[in-house]
Amino acid sequence: RGRVTEARYGMTETTIGFMGHSVSGEYPLGSIGSVFPSVSVKIVDIQTGEALGPFETGEICCRTPMVMKGYINNPRATQEMIDVDGWLHTGDVGYYDSCYRFFLVDRIKDLIKCKGLQVAPLELETLLLSHPKILDCGVIGVPNERYGEVPMAFIVQTRGENLSEQEVEKFIADQVAPYKQLRGGVRFVSQIPRNPSGKVLRRFLRDEVKKLKSNL
């Protein structure tokens, strides 16, 4: 009673969070909040760097006095993170709505590139977790000769349930565009590797795929 839960978004390079909100009815589910005072934020096209408008998905960039000066003895990494105009490129993909409330989509490095189009694993994971027979899941991109990369899902079933690969594939296919379908297949596992903050450790899932291929 009387306690308020707050959401914050930031990174080590920004010293503290640069946007956030108190969890209340003012912010839709999934929003990471609004920009704090003395902070500028923009969403840019991942390929061109062009600033984007509401509901357009791109990289989250911020500019604030709180941004680090740079990485010690690593000017190259600093230049890759902070551009000549002082914008810090977070490496996160997101968008904002008409009320300038921001939403996080995924990490750029985790995006699946299918026939020149980008698929966010988090989007597919959110859909999969809405299935009553799925307890947990993780999605990665796997190489494909025709498409470049295609999504593959690792699934932890709810105890006592019996789910088939075809059911999972159809569940996703009925809700997404063709290029987002699970053309990489479905694999059932006992658990999904996650770090202490709950993020899926996709590198371990990729290692699992490599092991599967080496055993063929």
UniProtKB/TrEMBL annotation:
Pfam families to which the protein is assigned, alphabetical: AMP-binding, AMP-binding_C
InterPro entries: AMP-bd_C (IPR025110), AMP-bd_C_sf (IPR045851), AMP-dep_synth/lig_dom (IPR000873)
Record family assignment: Belongs to the ATP-dependent AMP-binding enzyme family.
Gene Ontology terms for molecular function: CoA-ligase activity
Residues of the signal peptide: none
Residue stretches making up the AMP-binding enzyme C-terminal domain: 123-199
Predominant location: other
Gene Ontology cellular component annotations, sorted alphabetically: peroxisome
Domain AMP-dependent synthetase/ligase, chain residue ranges per copy: 9-71
Name this polypeptide is given: Luciferin 4-monooxygenase
Keywords: Peroxisome
Localization terms from the record: Peroxisome
Organism: Photinus pyralis
Superkingdom in the source lineage: Eukaryota
